[in-house]
Q: What sequence folds into this?
């Protein structure tokens, strides 16, 4: 059960939120002023998440936030701010709040933001615990066992395909030129045509992208390749530059 600390001085809001959150299965502890909130945040427990009102007696929410981050605590924090308090939101985000909702907020929206932050956190924890696992979207690459899966199905890669995929994943969202790929994957002493990259990208696509609904490997014409998670807006662009083009995989120049 995720433990949530709610620091909120308005009793009615605190009571309603606590009930709603408990209904969703969270364990909720409330504090009604900045000082005891800060103390609870830093000393009382391991919190999965903190909901922090900005207008609080004794210590303001922003001061509480500042001191929590000063203490190097990385717990996700959502600020509860007044509708017209734009400067509060800005300085809150600058000081390390992960998100905010403005009052009066719909509980359903707050719940969605809580779930999203907790999900991000658990993914981060996972990769911290398993540094030998690379994950992109539904693709997993185990650097120890060299096992690769997508949507849970195993994918057989040759050693060069594996190294190429690993290189692209490690440079996710960066466009990589053929020359960069050659020197990192094949080695600086590689002698030959950089077209070998296009050939291997084609092999990789056959195995990693083609059988699945979304494409990870994108061609950047005239430059090289890019591995990124496809969003619905990037899908269209990829359709015109991707597998459907018969020239794809040859040197774009
Ligand atoms: Ca308040």
A:
């Amino acid at each position: 059960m995720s433990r949530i600390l709610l620091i909120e001085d308005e009793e009615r809001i605190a009571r309603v939120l606590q009930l709603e959150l408990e209904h969703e299965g969270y364990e909720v502890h409330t504090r009604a002023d900045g000082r005891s909130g800060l103390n609870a945040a830093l000393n009382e427990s391991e919190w999965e998440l903190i909901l922090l009102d900005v207008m609080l007696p004794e210590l303001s929410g922003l001061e509480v936030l500042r001191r929590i981050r000063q203490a190097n605590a990385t717990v996700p924090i959502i600020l509860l701010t007044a509708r017209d308090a734009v400067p509060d939101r800005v300085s809150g985000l600058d000081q390390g709040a992960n998100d905010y909702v403005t009052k009066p907020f719909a509980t359903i929206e707050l719940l969605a933001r809580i779930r999203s932050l907790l999900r991000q956190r658990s993914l981060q924890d996972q990769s911290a615990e398993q540094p030998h696992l690379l994950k992109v979207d539904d693709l997993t690459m185990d650097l120890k066992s060299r096992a690769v899966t997508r949507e849970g199905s195993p994918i057989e890669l040759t050693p060069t395909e594996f190294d190429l995929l690993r290189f692209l994943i490690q440079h996710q969202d960066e466009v990589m030129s053929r020359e960069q790929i050659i020197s990192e994957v094949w080695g600086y002493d590689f002698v030959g045509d950089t077209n070998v990259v296009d050939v291997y990208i084609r092999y990789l696509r056959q195995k990693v992208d083609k059988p699945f609904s979304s494409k990870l490997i994108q061609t950047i014409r005239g430059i090289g390749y890019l591995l990124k998670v496809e969003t619905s807006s990037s899908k269209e662009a990829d359709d015109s530059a991707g597998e459907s083009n018969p020239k794809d995989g040859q040197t774009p120049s």
Summary: The mean pLDDT is 87. The chain is about 45% helix and 20% strand. Residues 9-10, 53, 55-56 surround calcium ion (CB under 6 Å). The two ends are 55 Å apart (CA to CA).
